[in-house]
Each structure stands twice: as C-alpha cells, then as structure tokens.
Fold this sequence. Notes:
Helices cover 47% and strands 0% of the residues. It is built from four helices and no strands.
Amino acid sequence: MSKTHLRRQCQGTTRTGNECRMQPLKGSKWCWNHDPKVVADRAHARSRGGAAGKRATPSEMAGTISLQGPQEALLLLEVAANETLALDNSAGRNRTLVQIALAWARVWEAVALEHRVRALESPSLVGAVPHPTTTGERS
C-alpha cells in the first residue's frame, strides 16, 4: 500500500506562468512571495538586502597602496586577507587564504634575512671575526 501525502501548495503563479511550488504561509493560501498581506514586509526585506551590500570594503578604507617596501606588502596582504575572510566559505576562498599566509611568511622571512645581513655587515663587526684565510687555516 502506498502512502500519498498531499502537500499544500501556494495558489500564486510564477513569472513564467507556472504554478508556484512553494508551501503557503500558515493560515494563508499563498507563500511569502505571493501573499498580498506581506507586501510591505517584502519591500522592507529587499531594501535591507540592497543596503547590506553597500558597506565600505577594507580596500576602500585603506586607499591606494604603493608597494615600496615590506610594510606596504604586509598591509596589502592584510587587506586581501580581510576581504577574503568576508567571502562565503569555499575551497577557493580557503586556497586564497593559504596563499596569503604563505606570502605573509615570505615577506617576514625576507625582513628577517635583511636584518641579519645588516647586522653581519655593520661596521662594528667588520674585522671582529677573522676570516679563515687570514689566520692561516685551510679547509
């Protein structure tokens, strides 16, 4: 014996003229999209949805970034990370975040290496550590 469930269906029609397949609101013959009693609610929801998309993005707040050094590169990566985090979760978003993190690590590695080279080349260290060829040692 098969069991048939009769599902209530909206009495409205779609733009293409087909019958609406949505379930009607409780106590109504129409769904939320077609019920004449909620016209004001639908208009309010549409206006709120449009306003939500008009907020300033981090890149608009940061202005134009010119990459003249590591600090500017880090700022650019921060802006990119913040904008990417605002997107819906997806594999592409996560790959982008990983690439941003790797780029961030490379910038910091370059900054650390630059500091080490400067320290090694500083005038206070030149001649302080004898070079192996000047001490008569051979490798």
